[in-house]
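User: Second chain of the day. Same drill as before.
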Amino acid sequence: MSKISAHLPSSITPFSVISQIARRIRIVPLVVLLIATVPAWFLTEAIAPQVVRAYTARVDLAIDRLPDENYETVLSRAEAAARAAAQRSFDQDILVTDVSIIVSVQNYGSIAPVLTLEVSRPEWRSRPDAQIWATYFKTARSLLFFEKEPTTSNTVPAASTLSTPK
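Assistant: Same format as last time:
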């Protein structure tokens, strides 16, 4: 069996008044929430700003040995290339705090790292000299065969002279 009951309106407060108050109660927190978020965001940024995302730029350079070039000349070209790469890395991106550059040289098919340059932005700003911040690899000279020049056999075997009877 089902029981049918009628809802009687409240004798204390009319229903229309309650519904108007309920709408205002829902709107007020929403307005307060929307208005308070912007100042709260500014306050949190002022107290604890976001972390700056700085990083190290890594560059690998490879240069070829030119004909009739000795090791010292190759080394000075490697230093110039490292200096230009460091300056370019700092100029291109303001978030770069450190630069790490490896310069390799290729000589007759063999390739070896010659120097590495690791420097921070403040150090580079105070002294932009690649020789100060570079670390040189001592074994690069022998790995690139600069101690002995490669021999090329351009000589033609001597032709034997035969005397022909006249």
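The radius of gyration is 40 Å.

User: Great, on to the next one.
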